[in-house]
Amino acid sequence: MATKKYQVTITGKDTLQHKFNGQEESKAIKKLSDKEQAEYSAYINEQGHICIPSKWLRGCLLEYYYDNGPSKGKMKAKKHAASRIRFTPALNDTGLDTWEIDKQSIPDPKKASRDWCVRARIPEWTITTTLTTSLDKTMKELHRDLTNAGEDIGVGSARIHGYGRFQIDDMKEIE
């Protein structure tokens, strides 16, 4: 099976970031201002730009393959694709250095109550990433799969509520 690389340009909307900071650190972060909490929730590179993690794109595509696999082979379809898909770099720079603050009430199952969740919200973003794959799929099929994954699943937090949807603007094979 030949490995192929594609340069993919993606535009997304209404994406909520929620980087895991560890349980103890998260407790300390809750005591900060909303602006500081949102900053801690964001993936920010050395240039101060907000980024879209490649693991989100990979996870989105794998979830799409799982959801659309045969009824008795969903996990097999996901596992088959898992070792054959990689997006690079690890953090995809949006070029944005500002974001909005999203504050929503969420259930806290440990306390049987609700709590505030503060996150960075990116109204619109564009990235260019590299997809390396050995899946036996044409570029047209991969483009369709990524498009459907972006429409149906998305990236980031609160995807079940429609956040983090994206579209494929351009895709081309590279060396």
Mean pLDDT across the residues is 91
CATH topology: Alpha-Beta Plaits
Q: How many helices in DSSP terms? A: 5
What's the CATH class, please?
Answer: Alpha Beta
Strand element count = 7
Q: Which CATH-level-2 architecture?
A: 2-Layer Sandwich
Biggest sheet character = 5 strands, antiparallel
Structural class: alpha+beta
Helix coverage percent of residues? Answer: 25-40%
The first-to-last residue Cα distance is: 16 Å
Low-confidence stretches: none
Task: State Rg.
Answer: 17 Å
Number of domains: 1
Proportion of residues in extended strands: 35-45%
Q: Globular, elongated, flat, extended or rod-shaped: what is the shape?
A: globular
H-E order: EHHEHHEEEEHE
Word description of this protein:
This protein has one domain: Alpha-Beta Plaits (2-Layer Sandwich). The protein contains 5 helices and 7 strands. The strands form 2 sheets. Strands 1, 3, 5, 6 and 7 form a 5-stranded antiparallel β-sheet that branches. Strands 2-4 form a two-stranded antiparallel ribbon.
